[in-house]
Automatic annotation (TrEMBL), chain A:
The lineage of its organism: Bacteria, Pseudomonadati, Pseudomonadota, Alphaproteobacteria, Hyphomicrobiales. Its cofactor is AMP. GO terms for molecular function: electron transfer activity. This is Electron transfer flavoprotein subunit beta. It comes from the Bacteria.
């Protein structure tokens, strides 16, 4: 079985994001970019399935600018077998990405697509679900455990108030949550090996997908600064403040 | 948390390939996850644990320039610079130097001068981190002045008998294998009198006479070594007898580049954490960052660090092409060793009282930085190397 893992290049999770002075977006100049952390978890899960003998090939795919090749290369260094770069400099919204991924799925015929549940740049949390809908496949989102059986996959999901396990018929879409696994490091010998792994370059046009944004960003602003807290001497003062100042009691 | 993205040099694409960036990412993650949360304990212990070194070995950090046959990755000096800089950025220079002495100051002697049998015996363990190495040239009366060493090795049949003392030996307490310089040529011309030997821990007469208590680099073990009639098999001669002086000199180029990159990693980290501190710290009603005197001084230091980094990168590219650049690497060592100390002085200053407290990162970093102007060739020695070429 093939596993397809879409990965996205995003601002590194360690970077404190700054809004551009003119409010048109966030400042990307000289900012460190990395693979979306949820996607790293997806790559790791795919590798573990292959190591367990439940998959033969892992394909990483990214929709984005030329530099997204670095992100694919990271996936290859972790252990994926080959990559597909769908090159576009346009701002890609989840629906456009899902449409492209649908075409890739039709070409590659994977048994399983594992995606990050969301990307940490726009936090949309839509691509996996949209892809499932477009393909008419079953989906297990926010996975904290993936148990691949014969023709089915059990996905344990993190839902409000606990865990829910769903059994999906393959082929299926799984999106990863934070606690699914801890992604491995790419060792230096594997980084060097990844240089020799193939990356196919495509464009949205190759798949006949119009990626023009359907949404317009009007303004980007910093979140309001958090106000300093107040220390109270005892419970009585706390209750009094909640009653009189906060008005919540 | 990185203050912003200003640590990523805009010149990165000029000097580096994809694999160098990936290596940088991996080392940076390793530093965040495996070093920073634990290294205060190692500072207290006076050494970096072997377990960490084995983890670094498993990720390929110790085999950057060594051939694939030994488990290495056969990369060039640019990758070494990336490792040095990122370990320097960890803020724990003692941990950084433990690794970098092993990879770039000690094991290189074995790799460069060793014969096939010696390399087959030691290199796989060196790359995996099972074997940790140290190099012993410096003595109580001789450091950069290699010709002045007094340790002797006298041939007796198929052995040499080694006598002498080495000091300030990084990894000296905990290493398994030592590359030791000794005089074999009696009073003959010094450049023909020095030979390097492979000495293993446990050889009779070889002892770690004491662990040294240092101003900084406290998570690195440093020792004084004693050799009393140590019988060393002749097969442990590293390279040709009498050629040790040249072997030592040959690696100075690499060593200076590595120390320069490490120092600039330290400087970047110090500036970053100071910028973050002065943006938060309020005095007279506004963050310190609002004071032009402070932010401009940091901006200038940042500019100088960036200039030094780009010189390091350009030099690494040229060294990788096989150029001999004694002048440039000596400039780098002199410049970076002093600059990192200027950076630390300003950063401690802008931390105010907190900068003087043992609990602050910058206090440790300022102690660690001091040796960058001393170890691996003091600034004055480096400047003479530059002056000779003017």
């Amino acid at each position: 079985m093939k596993i397809l893992v879409p990965v996205k290049r995003v601002i590194d999770y360690n970077v404190k994001v700054r809004v551009k002075a003119d409010g048109t977006g966030v400042d990307l100049a000289n900012v460190k970019m990395s693979m979306n952390p949820f996607d790293e978890i997806a790559v790791e899960e795919a590798i573990r399935l292959r190591e367990a003998g439940k998959a033969e090939e892992i394909i990483v795919v990214s929709v984005g600018p030329q530099q997204a090749q670095e992100t694919l290369r990271t996936g290859l260094a972790m252990g994926a077998d080959r990559g597909i770069l769908v090159k576009t400099d346009a701002t890609t919204e989840p629906l456009a990405v899902a449409k492209i991924l649908k075409k890739v799925v039709e070409e590659e015929q994977p048994g399983l697509v594992i995606l990050g549940k969301q990307a940490i740049d726009d936090d949309c949390n839509q691509t996996g679900q949209m892809l499932a809908a477009l393909l008419g496949w079953s989906q297990g989102t926010f996975a904290s455990k993936v148990d691949l059986g014969e023709g089915t996959v059990d996905v344990t999901r993190e839902v409000d108030g606990g865990l829910q396990t769903v059994k999906l018929k393959l082929p299926a879409i799984v999106t990863t949550d934070l606690r699914l696994n801890e992604p491995r490091y790419a060792s230096l010998p594997n980084i060097m090996k990844a240089k020799k792994k193939p990356i196919d370059e495509k464009s949205p046009e190759d798949y006949g997908v119009d990626v023009a944004p359907r949404l317009e960003v009007l303004k980007t602003v910093e979140p309001p600064a958090r106000q300093a807290g107040v220390k109270v001497a005892d419970v009585a003062e706390l209750v009094a403040k909640l009653k009189n100042e906060a008005g919540v009691l | 948390m990185t203050a912003s993205g200003f640590d990523v040099t805009s010149a990165s694409d000029v000097f580096f390939e994809e694999e160098h960036k990936m290596l940088r990412d991996q080392v940076r993650r390793f530093v965040e996850e495996e070093i920073k949360p634990h290294a205060d304990q190692w500072e207290a212990d006076g050494a970096t644990p072997r377990e960490l070194l084995r983890k670094m070995g498993a990720l390929g950090f110790f085999g950057i320039r060594y051939p694939e046959a030994y488990g290495g990755s056969a990369m060039d000096e640019r990758a070494t610079v990336v490792l040095s800089e990122e370990l320097g950025r960890s803020t724990y220079a003692g941990v950084a130097i433990t690794a970098l002495v092993h990879t770039d100051m000690a094991s290189v002697h074995l790799f460069n001068a060793g014969n096939d049998a010696q390399k087959a015996k030691y290199m796989p363990g060196i790359v995996s981190g099972e074997i940790i190495t140290a190099v012993g040239v410096t003595e109580p009366d001789a450091g950069s002045d290699v010709k002045g060493i007094r340790t002797t090795a006298r041939r007796e049949g198929d052995h040499y008998v080694l006598n002498g003392t080495k000091t300030f030996i990084t990894n000296g307490v905990l290493a398994d294998v030592y590359c030791i310089a000794a005089k074999t040529g009696g009073d003959g011309p010094a450049s023909k009198a020095v030979t390097m030997f492979i000495i293993e821990k446990g050889m009779e007469g070889f002892t770690v006479s004491r662990a040294l208590d240092k101003h900084g680099w406290r998570s690195s073990d440093t020792a004084e070594l004693s050799f009393v009639d140590v019988r060393v098999p002749a097969e442990n001669v590293l390279g040709e007898e009498g050629r040790g002086f040249y072997e030592i000199m040959k690696n100075f180029q690499n060593e200076r580049l590595v120390l320069g990159a490490m120092a600039m990693g330290e400087a970047q980290a110090a500036i970053e954490l100071t910028v973050a501190y002065v943006r938060d710290r309020k005095a007279f009603g506004a963050p310190l960052w609002e004071k032009q005197a402070i932010r401009q001084r940091l901006a200038m230091l940042s500019s100088r660090v960036e200039a030094a980094r780009q010189m390091i990168y350009a030099t690494a590219v040229r060294v990788a092409r096989g150029e001999q650049l004694v002048r440039e690497v000596s400039m780098i060592k002199a410049l970076c060793g002093e600059l990192v100390n200027e950076v630390m002085y300003a950063c401690v200053q802008f931390h105010g009282g907190m900068g003087f407290m043992r609990e602050s990162t910058i206090e440790r970093m300022s102690r660690d930085a001091r040796v960058q102007a001393i170890g691996g060739g003091a600034t004055e020695v480096m400047l003479e190397e530059v002056a000779k070429r003017m």
